[in-house]
Write a structure and sequence with these properties.
Layout: H1 2-30, H2 34-37, H3 51-63, H4 84-110, H5 121-141, H6 149-154, H7 160-183, H8 185-201, H9 206-243
Helix pairs in contact: 1-3, 1-4, 1-5, 1-9, 3-9, 4-5, 5-8, 5-9
Length: 244
């Protein structure tokens, strides 16, 4: 069903916006007021500095059957932040925002409000699969590996020499991570089982997650083509704005 793929993709884009908004809001509180002038506090995905890593690659990867991961999307002037504690807090704010979104999405399941017989079974399956994706994203993004937020939280406490060495890896680290998650099946299976266990703790039935994934996969190919076309048009529009 196209409706399932649409709900999952829309939910994912919204969660990415809130993820990056979390980074920007804490940075604003911590002293970097430039994030407001850059439009990072508007929840507008077109204001992100890296459209490819923030939306294009994650959405395409998601529609291909993988796990979407948000890349670095907002530029934070860390020199303006008042302390290393604020620098760590800015990095941690993204996963925390995603966690809050996940908990909110799980409320109907936790409270037993989900009824498959109500005619909205496809919607509950969509939300169950989306929750699975959100939990998986939080787990991955919390790893202390550049350029993930888990690394960003500990980077201010590392020596300048080590920071410099790890930043070189961070430039291609997100692509390396995509490849590992795609080809390293044992790693993916372990993270998948851990994600499913956490989802069950939140009250999300595993059979709804599986059903949501199946329904999503059946219609994702159509949205994949549409997403590529739309994102290409958006990129051209942004390029014209920069030229002006």
């Amino acid at each position: 069903m196209l409706s399932v793929a649409a709900v999952v993709c829309f939910g994912w884009v919204l969660s990415v916006c809130l993820h990056e908004f979390g980074h920007a809001l804490v940075a604003y509180w911590g002293g970097d007021t430039s994030v407001k002038d850059k439009g990072y506090l508007t929840l507008n995905p077109l204001k992100y500095t890296n459209l490819d890593l923030s939306l294009t690659l994650p959405i395409i990867f998601l529609l291909m059957g993988g796990i979407a991961l948000p890349g670095g999307a907002v530029y934070i002037n860390r020199q303006r932040l008042r302390s290393r504690w604020w620098q760590s807090a800015v990095s941690a704010a993204g996963p925390i925002a995603t966690t809050i979104v996940t908990l909110l999405l799980a409320i109907p399941f936790r409270l037993g409000l989900v009824s498959i017989d109500s005619g909205l079974g496809w919607l509950w399956s969509s939300l169950a699969f989306l929750i699975f994706l959100e939990i998986y994203s939080v787990l991955i993004n919390s790893l202390p590996i550049p350029p993930l937020d888990g690394y960003g939280a500990i980077e201010p406490w590392l020596s300048p020499e080590l920071q410099g060495q790890l930043r070189k890896f961070g430039k291609s680290g997100i692509y390396f991570l995509f490849m590992v998650l795609w080809f390293a099946k044992p790693v993916n299976l372990f993270l998948g089982h851990l994600t499913a266990s956490i989802a069950q703790i939140l009250g999300v039935p595993s059979h709804l997650e599986a059903e949501g994934f199946i329904l999503f996969s059946k219609s994702s190919s159509i949205l994949l083509v549409a997403a590529v076309v739309i994102l290409l048009l958006v990129r051209k529009g942004l390029q014209r704005q920069h030229k002006v």
